[in-house]
From TrEMBL:
Gene3D superfamilies: 1.10.287.130, Histidine kinase-like ATPase, C-terminal domain, PAS domain. Keywords: Coiled coil, Kinase, Membrane, Phosphoprotein, Transferase, Transmembrane, Transmembrane helix, Two-component regulatory system. This is histidine kinase. One of its GO terms (molecular function) is phosphorelay sensor kinase activity. Its EC number is 2.7.13.3. It catalyses: ATP + protein L-histidine = ADP + protein N-phospho-L-histidine. It comes from Sphingobium indicum (strain DSM 16413 / CCM 7287 / MTCC 6362 / UT26 / NBRC 101211 / UT26S). SMART domains: HATPase_c (SM00387), HisKA (SM00388), PAS (SM00091). The chain crosses the membrane at residues 6-27. The keyword Acetylation does not apply. InterPro entries: HATPase_C_sf, HATPase_dom, His_kinase_dom, HisK_dim/P_dom, HisK_dim/P_sf, PAS, PAS-like_dom_sf, Sensor_HK_Regulatory. Residues 154-181, 277-304 form a coiled coil.
Length: 781
């Protein structure tokens, strides 16, 4: 069919439009395809980025639907990702119940209020820590009310945080300890910043510069040391920081008002600045001097010791020895001066035969060489060939050296041997003593005993070997005592000796009639010595003597009464005779012839002497009985002495004896019996005149002190031997002498009793051929 031109034109236009549309559609499709491919690539990259992100995203829609990455199931310990948020926050959703509840509340709050939150949660039975960060979702991710969650696995980061916190805490403690150490340092320390300004000083620095406090010192920039040679402390620190190595220098400083030289050390710290400290060299130098002095004193002390001393250095060479070391081992000074090593010194000692004999000397020497390496001191005893005993003490020194001390113990060993022998002898003596001896320790147990102790108490050796206590022992043996309760007395005495350290004595009777005296004596070592002595026989003899003494005392009383009665009985007829004789002498019976007159005078003289003898016997008897009457009145001893000399003057002149009197003003007066004192002087002068040969000399001397008066009667007669002096005042000796026909003089005994009755004393001093001196001392009171 033929087309019209218009139709052909219209068709052409339509075809042209369709072709253009096809071309545009093709071009637009290609462009969109390229854009789609780009978007897909971008989506893939974003998906890969999200997948490799440290957090898993979750999108929660308003209806509770949940979109999440697959790895969330692994973190929650589930096989699949929850489809709804209710499954995630359910009790079995994989989270701890409390954490699930808190997460649900936060999600609900974010949906309502549109706020963000961050919440740490943990999975059930899982060590993972999850950090949930939530925020409202945009319209692109979800419709209104949606929430997007990012869940981070914070396990590793939290562990790292804890580690970092621990390190920070350690660094803080180290810094505080370092600051405390710097502050407590006894020497000045400081720190400078990079611009060389002081930023830190310790208390020692503040004290050294006389500052108030560290803040003031830092603010004022007070320097410790002075500028030396134009170099300031800041310049020196800057040079140290530039060099990068610590620098030491000696500089002057004034500390505590004293000029001192100190050693300053600057330590570069890089960008942190420079640290420094100062040491007082004066104290160090004094310490060095003191050390040298101490070392010299120690060497001098070791050199003065009686023990041999040798010191070896760390190289095992001999560094010091003293004179006893050389003498003890017979070593030569010149050979030791070369500082020989330890082995060579032993060889020299062996050559001098001053080492113990050993079959294998090299091995023995090697063992002694190990002393240098020993951590502890060693001690040995060496017995030399000549019998010398040496105690060897080896002390390793901190510097690797060795100090050897050799002590000669030969004398101690000999003394120990002698002591052991003495102990054996003492033990044998102790066991064979007649006395019963037991030694009780401080706790009251029997420690030692002898055979006599076991025999007296009649106990078995097995019982004593158990070392029983004193109370146990007394309970065992108290049945053997006459009075069993006396066992308590023995126990108490032993306790007093061991605990109270008091010595006690007593006696105890046995049931068989034996009597023992015992004593508990404290010993220096805290023990007590218990001794028992059989005094049965002596007690019997004592009783016999006591009975005899009672009988003698009774007889003496009878004798005293008899003498007293007889004195009075004799005095009556004697007075009558004397009276009649005086009457006859006076002429009452008529005029007497010359011979009768002589007879009457003889009668009067004899009656006077007999009366005096009776009075003396009565006084002596009363004095021996302690009943001699003595008056107390002031007595002028000079007057009594002159009267006594006057009374005896006639007898002395008749015998041609020179009777002298020497009285000093210090003789004075006493409180006493005038008649008794005159009586004592009469007896003494009478004895002196009687026993002194013709032409002799008798002296009565008197003097005194503030407390006592003294009368001395002396003669140059024949004297009295020692045997006679021992018995001259004894009544029984006088009786025996009278029984044998001798003169039983009572003058000296009576004079002593008269002196003692006044509280005084009478002493006799005589030598055969040298005369006799009798001294009476009387108290003033």
């Amino acid at each position: 069919m033929a087309l019209t031109p218009l139709a052909a034109v219209i068709l052409g236009v339509v075809l042209a439009l369709w072709l253009g549309a096809a071309i545009w559609a093709l071009s637009s499709g290609q462009r969109r395809r390229r854009e789609g491919m780009q978007a897909q690539g971008k989506l893939d990259r974003l998906s890969a980025l999200i997948a490799s992100a440290p957090a898993a995203p979750i999108v929660i829609h308003s209806d509770g639907r949940l979109e999440a990455a697959d790895r969330l199931a692994k973190w929650l310990g589930k096989e699949r990702v929850p489809a709804f948020v209710s499954e995630l926050t359910a009790p079995d959703g994989g989270l701890e119940p409390d954490d699930a509840t808190a997460l649900a509340q936060e999600i609900a709050a974010a949906q309502r209020a549109g706020r963000s939150f961050a919440l740490p949660v943990r999975g059930v039975d899982s060590s993972r820590l999850l950090l949930v960060r939530g925020a409202p979702a945009g319209s692109v991710l979800a419709e209104s009310g949606g929430v997007v969650l990012w869940i981070f696995d914070a396990t590793d980061s939290q562990s790292e945080i804890q580690t970092l916190k621990g390190r920070v805490e350690q660094l803080r403690e180290a810094l505080e300890a370092l600051a405390g150490l710097v502050e407590a340092a006894p020497f000045p320390m400081w720190h400078r910043t990079a611009d060389m300004r002081l930023s830190l000083v310790n208390t020692a620095y503040v004290r050294a510069v006389d500052g108030e406090n560290a803040r003031e010192v830092i603010a004022n920039g007070t320097e410790l040391v002075e500028t030396v040679g134009g170099l300031t402390p800041q310049a020196a620190a800057a040079q140290t920081l530039a060099d990068g190595t610590p620098v030491e220098r000696m500089v002057p400083a004034t500390i505590d008002g004293e000029r001192r030289t100190i050693r300053v050390v600057d330590v570069p710290l890089g960008a942190a600045g420079v640290a420094g400290f100062a040491l007082d060299q004066n104290e160090l130098e004094q310490a060095r001097v003191e050390h040298r002095r101490l070392e010299a004193a120690q060497r001098d002390l070791l050199d003065r010791l009686s023990a041999g001393v040798a010191r070896f250095g760390s190289d095992r060479a001999l560094r010091f020895w003293n004179q006893p070391f050389m003498s003890l081992f017979g070593l030569d000074q010149e050979r030791l001066a070369d500082n020989p090593p330890f082995e060579r010194v032993l060889d020299q000692m062996r050559e001098a035969r001053r080492l113990p004999e050993n079959r294998d000397f090299p091995a023995w020497r090697a063992e002694r060489r190990d002393w240098f390496l020993s951590p502890d001191p060693r001690e040995e005893n060496w017995l030399l060939a000549d019998g010398t005993h040496l105690r060897v003490y080896a002390q390793p020194l901190p510097d690797g050296g060795l100090l050897l001390i050799f002590e000669d113990r030969t004398e101690q060993v000999q003394l120990s041997s002698a002591r052991d022998t003495l102990l054996r002898v003492r033990t044998a003596t102790f066991d064979n003593l007649f006395e019963s001896i037991g030694v009780f320790s401080s706790d009251g147990r029997l420690h030692l005993w002898n055979s006599r102790f076991r025999t007296i108490w009649d106990v078995s050796e097995d019982l004593l070997a158990q070392h029983p206590r004193i109370d146990e022992l007394m309970r065992t043996v108290q049945s053997r005592l006459a009075k069993p309760q006396q066992g308590n007395l023995v126990r108490e005495l032993v306790r007093a000796a061991t605990v109270e350290r008091k010595q006690r004595v007593g006696h105890v009777g046995f049931a068989d009639g034996r009597i023992f005296e015992f004593a508990a004596i404290p010993l220096p070592d805290g023990n007590a010595l218990f001794t028992m002595l059989d005094v049965t026989d002596s007690r019997r003899v004592e009783q016999v003597l006591r009975d005899r003494n009672d009988a003698l005392e009774q007889a003496d009383k009878v004798k005293t009464a008899f003498v007293t009665n007889m004195s009075y009985e004799l005095r009556t007829p004697l007075t009558t005779i004397a009276g009649f004789a005086e009457m006859m002498s006076a002429g009452y019976a008529g005029e007497l012839s010359a011979s009768a007159k002589e007879y009457v005078d003889g009668i009067l003289q004899s009656t006077n002497r007999l009366s005096m003898l009776i009075d003396n016997v009565l006084d002596l008897t009363q004095g021996e009985a302690g009943m001699l009457p003595v008056e107390k009145a002031p007595v002028d001893l000079a007057v009594e002495a002159r009267d006594a000399v006057a009374r005896i003057k006639g007898d002395a002149t008749a015998k041609g004896i020179d009777l002298a009197l020497s009285l000093q003003a210090s003789l004075g007066t006493i409180q006493g019996d005038k008649r008794r004192i005159g009586q004592a002087l009469d007896h003494l002068l009478e004895n002196a005149v009687r026993y002194c040969s013709r032409g002799g000399r008798v002296l009565l001397h008197g003097d005194g002190t503030t407390d006592n008066a003294r009368l001395v009667v002396s003669d140059n007669g024949p004297g009295i031997n020692a045997k006679r002096q021992a018995t001259i005042f004894d009544a029984s000796s006088r009786t025996e002498q009278a029984r044998n026909g001798g003169k039983a003089g009572i003058g000296l005994p009576l004079a002593r009793q008269l002196a003692q009755a006044h509280g005084g004393t009478l002493q006799l001093v005589s030598e055969p051929g040298q005369g006799t001196m009798v001294v009476i001392e009387l108290p003033r009171g």
